[in-house]
Amino acid sequence: MKKDARFYMNAVRSIATETLSDKNYTKKDIGGHIKDLVSLDQNPQRKAIAFFSVLRHFIPDELFHRITNGHFQHQGDTQLSIDPDLYSLQEERVGEGEQCHVYKLLSQDPERPSLVAKFEKKWGNLQFLLDRAKKVRSEYEEIRSWFEDIPDFIPEEFRFIGKTPFGGRKGVIVIQKFFGDSTKIKDLFRSVDKGSLLQTLQNNPSLEKTFRAFVQDTLSQLDKDGRMIDILGKDNVALIEDTDGPHLILLDPHVIHNINKVPKEIQKELLGHITYLQEIVEALDTNKDTRL
Known about the structure:
This protein is α+β, with helices and mostly antiparallel strands and 292 residues long. It contains nine helices and ten strands. The chain has a five-stranded antiparallel sheet with strand order 1-2-3-5-4. A three-stranded antiparallel sheet has the order 6-8-9. A hairpin with a 2-residue loop joins β8 and β9. The longest helix has 28 residues. The radius of gyration is 21 Å and the shape is globular. The termini are far apart.
């Protein structure tokens, strides 16, 4: 019983820290949070997020930071493990995944590219963070080995444990290249319809080659041991516009799913995406034969 109570207290504490530390929750849809809060059908986690979001929204910043002693206040560049002469951390998030918040590191030097900092949502003591960092690195290296035949499909990255913008708490931070804002990044499975994707692939031979290799490598690993990358997360597998044309990039090369161990609804969604990829390849082959 004590264990259950401790589990729920930790869950509530985690939600409070994440919600109160980041005003993006309330800026997006305060009306939606109020609706979740009064709804009789909403699950407890959503209700907790709604409660803390509404609380944060209606308390003025100055008063909130005073009564919480600045614990949840967004930390500036000087509080982070980032050289402010080289990069400036933008306060507003540019993205969010299941496991992390994504912020842009704006380069202060025109010779240096801007970056993104992915701040993990999981908190803990130093040993927990060390273990978590090792797992993040291990998954990254393994996924990179699966797709080693595809140049630039897996972005270069480095990771470290440092202070985060959330009250200065320490967490695992992953640094990657900044590939552009949302207008340049399209989710392969959500942002592009089948016809447009086929047209784009046919018009860009190098992209088609990358896409075919991505599908082949994904299927090979799936057939080998039932494991695969996370293709469900928003913008995880992305088409990114660049000056030399569109590129296919795996923006979050960390999560590995075992198709035989995930919940049935997740398994169904993963297999649906796999079927979609196979259909695209078949359509490319058919169109190629027709052109010949």
